[in-house]
Design goal:
By secondary structure, the protein is of the alpha/beta class. 24% of the residues lie in helices and 19% in strands. The protein has 7 helices and 11 strands. The protein has helices at residues 102-114, 131-140, 168-182, 201-215, 257-265, 284-290, 306-316; strands spanning 38-46, 49-58, 63-70, 73-80, 83-84, 88-92, 119-122, 143-147, 188-192, 220-221, 323-326. β1 and β2 (49-58) form a beta hairpin. 30% of the residues are buried.
Length: 327
Amino acid sequence: MNANGLVDLNLTANDIKQLQINKPHLWWPNGYGNPDLYRIRLQYISANTISDDTGFLFGIRTVRSEATTVNGWVRRFFYVNGKRIHLVGGAWVPDMMMNRDSLRYDYELHLCRNANVNLVRIWGGGIGETDDFYESADRYGLLVWQDFWITGDTNGEFKGSADYPLQGDVFIRNIVSTILRIRNHASLLVWTGGNEGHARKPLYDAMRDNVAMLDGTRPFIPSSSGFAKQGADWKGSWPDDKPSGVYSGGSYKWEDPARYFKLVDAGKDWLFKDETGIPSQVPYNSLAKTITNLVPDSALPYPLNNTWAIMMHVRATGIMSCTIKIW
């Protein structure tokens, strides 16, 4: 190859025996198995001189999604290694001041793992996270729900203007760059067109088409809200071309537990809820599966009753470091 030249190299297990892995240990999300990782080292040698030497960790697993219709509402399931996964997660809002480093990412995602969370969602009003974030998510078995950088102030759905973002060419370059940067992380589960709303059609198509072309191993869904309205000629999720099948919209206040059972029984938007508030507490039998050490601790402050003791224990163990939402 000439100096400053460019060439595509396709390295396959058929040609290079070192790339063959027999009976691999699969990467599993938190609560379903170990997030086993492998390390690969690649060297480029020219004229007996190593001109490039790199290595990275990777996991072996498959992901896919499936949409079904119940009482006229679409519900989406997600699978890892062929097993349907019950997603328990929370929103992650990237630090606008870029005040996190690798140690803080590791610490906070470790807390999420200890809270029995198995998914974190990069909220669409934020930015693509750093490499340190995705590497920590890989290690702790935390699936990542990746919104592109669109929220309800685009497309005129809730407020604002369909002209946002103003520099569409820059936005598309960011799409391509981000997909290439993070697509090899085992933790990455799904791409979405944004939070609640979605961008104007040329940008939406660029998100969907580049996920299909540059990734092709995990789904894209139109929005993190099933209530977002698309044009009749817009394509749906990739690869099934169906609606998102996920819904936001609360509740954001305490509700009588019986109301949640009624919502689920009605087969409406509670088929897959991707946004609720912390006051929307789950029934005790579900809570015990999420917080496995749910026992009163009389040594903690405010020992007024068991409920306060439990809640203070939750806060003390760091669970409140994530916005926990039960899906």
